[in-house]
Amino acid sequence: MKDYFKVDEWKIIEEGFDPHYNKVAESVLSLGNGRMGQRANFEEAYSGETLQGNYVAGVYYPDKTRVGWWKNGYPEYFAKVLNAANWIGIDVTLGDEPLDLAKCEVLTFRRELNMQEGYLKRSFKAKTESGKEVGVESVRFCSMVDDECGAISYTITPLNFNGEITLTPYIDGDIVNKDSNYDEKFWDEVSKATTNDGGYLQLRTKKTGFEVATATKIVLLQDNAPLEFESTPIEKEKYIGTTVKVNVGAGKSITLLKYAANLSSQNHSKEELANKATAVINRVAAKGFGTILAEQAAAWAEKWKNNDIIIEGDAKAQQGIRFNIFQLNQTYTGEDDRLNIGPKGFTGEKYGGSTYWDTEAYCVPFYLATAEQKVARNLLLYRYKQLGKAIENAKLLGFKDGAALYPMVTMDGTECHNEWEITFEEIHRNGAIAFAIYNYVRYTGDEAYLGDYGLEVLIAISRFWSQRITWSADREQYVMLGVTGPNEYENNVNNNWYTSTIAVWCMKYTLEVIDKVKQADQAKYDELAAKITFDEGTESGRFADIVAKMYFPQDEKLGIYLQQDGYLDKEQLLVTDLPATERPLVQKWSWDRILRSVFIKQADVLQGLYFFEEDYDLETIRRNYDFYEPRTVHESSLSPCVHAILAAKLGDVERAYQFYLRTSRLDIDDYNNDTEDGCHITSMAGTWMSIVEGFGGMRVKDGMLSFNPLLPDEWKALSFQIGFRGSLLNIRIAKEGTTVRNLSDNSVTVMLNGASQLIEAKGEVLMRT
Ligand code: BGC
């Protein structure tokens, strides 16, 4: 854990420059607006360590699979969100000396992500090799209002010299993905043009044929007034630039405004892209930098109105949660049901920007409570639309009759993952997709979703389980062999408790939903059954038989569920037995040693007890928590949040607090030594859950919100807003008690510590501690 960034409730501040930490800072200080995003790279050239990253949502490349040993069933390619044209670049030359912080003495340096208003500010003073001192201040953002646009204000001041400064703002499309499997470049040029004050570059992705036109327009200002300038356009393969030379006196500043637009053929016709990008950029530039920055602040103020969580008395914890909420809102806005939430969002290449089970298991609850209902629904529809491909995917692996196996990693529904133990075995992802349907309907009450879309997905998933689960004549029970549970530090295990539990739950739920849909609309049900040739008698019969006769590993002496058969045969070490120098295990131990060890990467049995807590009594949950928690190394970012929620449920507020800090500051403090690859965006939704479901104790029961609040000693108070079925509530948990304010125009009934409370429109109730 590192203490690199300054603690501030609304900002992430890097004070002073540590080149070894640059890639971590680039990740943490990333910007995005749901449509595009970028790492906090410098505008001017930098020859030190950096990971360049500009991304356009939904634009991907199918990179041919590269594995040591090909196995039948592997997907042909891994889809990757592409590193797209770099639109932020501004080369700076002082006289004839290029400005490059790696070659300067950095006198002062500060990067600051303003989460309240949604921009990144960077300022520094540096001395070049020849002794020229220069000051720079840049402000940039990806606009939430014009979500195809970004803008930069770049001010440069010669501090101890008079002379010529050359500025070359450019768009560079000759970029690579660091994770490219064959060192290929993924973009071809379509067209380009330059003008005195900018131009555009249109690129096409190889294979997928997406086109993106990036246009820029520049304005020069001196003393806040526009400065006429002559420029020299530069055109190279996949590159355009504009060179401007200005004479500036010592202590005087010159500001370059660079507006940029990224338009993708996903949203516009290819023929019109360039013209439209130019029109958009002209429209945005005409508003002026000050105006669009003010619009940005207003758009963020609107987001924060419903999204903010306030922690009083603990600035570190406050900064952590705001950072998580900020990044989630930068990644996915829910406007477009073709998009999803990559585990790294727009902050890095790792995980290819693709969709994982993370979305359903972790992100859906956040969007359900903080955004309009259509946002979570769009996430569900994304999977509904990919059902055909999930059925194809299962077919490739030998399943039949409409069984669906959703991919572990996907962009358009096709499986992209290619490690056999995950691709073929980490099938619990199917369960999370079913659980999200249940979660959505439980939260919103939108039962019509089940007949319209949900049941079709549920039946296809249950069909998969019913074929994947087999009968053991020896046990006289059903078993599920050869799986990998959420704990990826175990592969090819038999009877992973979590996977079997979610599979059986899924079949049970499917049977319930069949009845529900039939009751609501028999004709609709009949139509669906005919469409998917569902033979209710036989297929439901098999689901029910598995539900009744499934084997679940457990240990009666310890009173716990076993993560899988044979788990207790392992040497029973605890995490406290591990020297700090051996962690993270994934970086320090051989894979073989990890697989044989008792250590658990992330919540596994506990993930199941979290999802299905209503089916288990508190003591069972406690015994399992007490057994598994000390064996868990939390080397997946998805782990601490589940532990935080369970610790809070068990009344262990101090442990819940420690887990909360770990999950919320995972990237700010680079806990797992991997933030340089990008931030852990999907686990940020888990951080939100650890506040709302953990300390707030929020659940949905019988169509009502229920709260069982708990406040860490370190906090004076905690408050958050929850949108629920058209109502908006503010919950404030303080030492003296919990206040629930109903901000809506209709009355609402909630459960507070088990007692039902009616709250009038605009009214409030206080439950004293
Ligand atoms: C976790 C998976 C997760 C993936 C993407 C892995 O490290 O083990 O559960 O889906 O990261 O976040």
Automatic annotation (TrEMBL):
The active site is at 488 (proton donor). It comes from the Bacteria. One of its GO terms (molecular function) is glycosyltransferase activity. Residues 698-755 form the Glycoside hydrolase family 65 C-terminal domain. Substrate binds at residues 357-358, 601-602. Residues 322-689 form the Glycoside hydrolase family 65 central catalytic domain. The keyword Hydrolase applies. GO terms for biological process: carbohydrate metabolic process. The keyword Magnesium does not apply. Keywords: Hydrolase. Residues 13-265 form the Glycoside hydrolase family 65 N-terminal domain. Belongs to the glycosyl hydrolase 65 family. This is Glycoside hydrolase family 65 protein. It comes from Mucilaginibacter gilvus. The lineage of its organism: Bacteria, Pseudomonadati, Bacteroidota, Sphingobacteriia, Sphingobacteriales.
